[in-house]
Specification:
- Four copies of one chain form a homotetramer.
- Chain A is mostly helical and about 200 residues long.
- Chain A has helices spanning about 5-20, 35, 40-65, 70-85, 90-95, 100-130, 135-140, 145-160, 165-180, 185-195.
- The first copy, chain A, is globular, with a radius of gyration of 18 Å.
- Chains A and B meet through helix 1, helix 4, helix 5 and helix 6 of A and helix 1, helix 3 and helix 10 of B.
Chain lengths: ~200, ~200, ~200, ~200
């Protein structure tokens, strides 16, 4: 099974998700800076979600660089990830328009959690097709970030009922953790290239 | 004729369809769980259509893996399929917003039926360019699912006037039938690869 | 200059245009067939524009199959075509919502005319980079359809002030003319393949 | 690291941005030319932004033609550019709907400035991976346009508070400057091809 169409379809979905979220930033009626003020929380929500979709695209890109086979199960594990990402525009709008109050913040975190679980399952599905001693297995290593992120989200969700802004800080913190590029994968690709 | 652009264009259309359907999930005014409740049927409608578009993308991906020629007629058979899929956002919104009452459920089923017919015709158009003894012909085999699906939709559509929820169950059941990957096609590709 | 990104970007734009036009088919308030009735002209307008974008994609696909160089000028000739196509969602909505009265029908025709002119200029720009005796030059031949289409639109636009429905019939007739695949181009590609 | 997915994802984002901006051109209620009149400034705003996104796509295309490595930092420099471009639909709508009054014009210019800075940083990030004596370094040359554009925007932004229309003229002038294709890059590619 060829991986290029899975990548092309995923790239398309990533591109549409990251771009249509901006449609919730509706041009305000007034033409001065005061008219922009009420948009600030929606803008911040947009920035956070934009960074998250970019992170997922980045990681997806890195992951599939070392993938060789995409069997049936992988296609569905990938669609599962795209499903939760497709809900980003909705939770971004709901959380932004409500200034990150408790429930919208918790539901935003729930979608982050489900996407993180989907992204945790995806390489496991890939490993089943590549074997425990493959380059992929080596590159994934302990997958520390993939394991710790859902824990952070799971802690932040109940926290949102008490202090939603602190929960948002956790979401932003986990995003920062991921922005650091996955050196291990780059390392393996380089080594493979030298062979 | 090169098949890569047909795939790229189709992937783009699949990606946009599957993603813009979420625009109908509008962020509600309230900021608590009660405000989300009225969205539940729209969300379920979204999930069903998301799964259907993913199935069509999956099958399209599998089918074109073993395609070698795309002549004029194939391009239009493909556009015909994309046309019916492009109506998914509309029927998804109409059925979801009306809690799957009779008419919206029947029209949803009609679009499913027309997409199924279009997808039934597409490989036949491809076979005309590949010949009856090609790998494609072998991979399609009896095309049991492709033949039985339209029959189920055709039965469910009149049923929607009596019990629309039962019709929706049939739509969901046919989707489940398709989620099981098409082992025959994977089998043929593998064998071709061994040659 | 590599043509693959020009194709990828164009495919993306074609895919988004053909799909977002459906957003104007808004789910009606009622849940019976009567509620769908007012959507009929919008639906017909959608079908006509869908077919037109599909034709342009098809022709674009055929044309670039035999293109070898894309120099600076070609990129802008292509962007020029995409610009007029990007106005399809607007004129489709305006004409559909007003049941194809005179002005919306004339403006719809104007955008068709400008897109046809842009598509008439594109191969000429390509020929400048390929030479008069190239396969491209041979494949284009007399470009009868490309020359006759703008004439039909130019006739239909003033006609729309008297009988807009007759103008729409002309638009549909020209679309039919194009649906017939361009055998000449397929012929040249085949011959090139045999060399 | 493979550059093809970075290009595919970027093409997708470019294609969606350039196309969804047209959604702000809403079909007016009336069906005559007078009904179109209030849309004129929105249309002009659309044309300016369409040209700008096309320029960025063109330059991105040219730049990545001669790129060989895309390391972690490049991915984020690219995402940074896409982020500012993704705000084009918002500022285009705000400036257009307010007939380019001072604040919307200044904010439009601010997004142009940030995109220009992001595009100024991107090749520098690429150079870090390619070396000062690479074909890329040679092709960029003095990067006169890349350096002068942000200066023009920075001058136009405060000017918008006095004469917004003059600021818009500067934006359009910088766009014209860029439409002239970057001969240096084409030159280097050609020379590389001859080796």
């Amino acid at each position: 099974m060829d991986k290029s169409r899975l990548e092309a379809f995923s790239d398309g979905v990533f591109a549409v998700i990251i771009t249509i979220m901006v449609l919730d930033l509706k041009a305000p009626a007034g033409d001065n800076l005061n008219a922009l003020k009420p948009l600030l929380p929606i803008f911040l929500s947009y920035v956070l979600s934009f960074v998250y979709v970019a992170i997922y695209w980045n990681n997806h890109h890195h992951l599939f660089q070392i993938v060789k086979n995409v069997r049936g199960g992988v296609l569905w594990a990938n669609v599962h990830l795209l499903f939760w990402l497709s809900l980003f525009p909705f939770v971004t709008a709901w959380a932004g328009e409500n200034h990150f109050t408790s429930w919208p913040t918790a539901v935003y975190g729930f979608v982050l959690l489900m996407a993180a679980i989907a992204y945790f399952l995806l390489p496991r599905r890939l490993l089943a097709a590549h074997g425990r001693h493959s380059a992929l297995s080596h590159a994934l290593g302990s997958d520390f970030k993939g394991k710790i992120s859902p824990v952070f989200y799971a802690l932040a969700i109940p926290l949102a009922s008490v202090s939603p802004h602190f929960a948002v800080l956790i979401y932003a913190g986990v995003a920062l953790l991921w922005i650091v590029p996955d050196r291990r994968v780059e390392h393996v690709i380089e080594r493979e290239g030298h062979k």
